[in-house]
Amino acid sequence: MTGHATSAGDRIPDTLLGLKLHGEGLSDAEIAEWFADEESGYYDLVEGHYFGGDDSYRYEYSALNEFHAFRHLRGEHFGTCLALGCARGDDVAELAPMVDHYVCIEPARQWWTDSIRGKPAEFRTPTLRGTVDLPDESIDLAVSLGVLHHIPNVSEVIAEIGRLLRPGGVFVLREPITSMGDFRRPRAGLTRNERGIPHDILVRWLRANGLRIERSSFCMVSAIRILAEKAGFTPSFNSPWYTRLDAFGSVLLAPNVAYWRGSTIKKIAPSSVFIIARKALNETKGGADGGE
């Protein structure tokens, strides 16, 4: 029997405990049903739940991306950047000085455009299983910021990134690493199917596809946000000072990271991880990683 019993006697399934990832192993029909729910879920969320549908959408993670990832890529050049679920391109726009061309996989056509910060952009609709119609080893950079946790077959999408990246190419990702509550029930401010990806599982899948972790850092401690608000500050991941405060707290609280946060103490921990991974220069997979 799988799962663990709670104090109330009900059994927590392995997917909520982070021993397995909810959504893996679905059939084509089940994946189609999943995406029917998710296809415009994020667009509807930001336009309705967060910004009231008044066309006031604004990207909220510029300083966070810069601190944990983009600053570490300065000085490199990337011919083609594959951007997964990038909305109108705000999350990858700061990379434009380093990139020649964007290929963007984005389901919400409302956000499609032909350029991002002056660089040509080709927007495409995602395929059912996450394949991308590009040759092997044809991209230099892949970016997925808070996208994979909306996708059912995460392992297949990571494998596709591994196929597409040239040797030495870079994969930048940020994902929640908690269950994000009980995803069997409706949750305010979240789409129906989203759930975090267990950290150990995420690292294992990256390594299995020849992606060596160069940098890894936890972020997003909700307790720090709450304390900042009580102190009269407005916490924002567009703010460099708040981003640094959150990063410092994430280092201190890293030992408390857990997928299923069934107690208050477990919630006082970073909820997401930033990873910069580079494809190995040879075909040997599962080698040693650094930066964790």
Describe, in plain words, how this protein is organized in 3D:
There is one protein chain. The chain is an alpha/beta fold and 292 residues long. Helix content is 26%, strand content 23%. The protein has eight helices and ten strands. It has helices at residues 14-17, 28-38, 41-50, 62-68, 154-164, 199-208, 222-230, 240-253; strands spanning 4-5, 11-12, 78-84, 99-105, 115-116, 119-124, 139-145, 165-176, 211-221, 270-279. An eight-stranded mixed β-sheet has the order 5-6-4-3-7-8-10-9. β1 and β2 form a beta hairpin. The longest helix is centred in the last third of the chain and has 14 residues, at 240-253. The two termini are 33 Å apart.
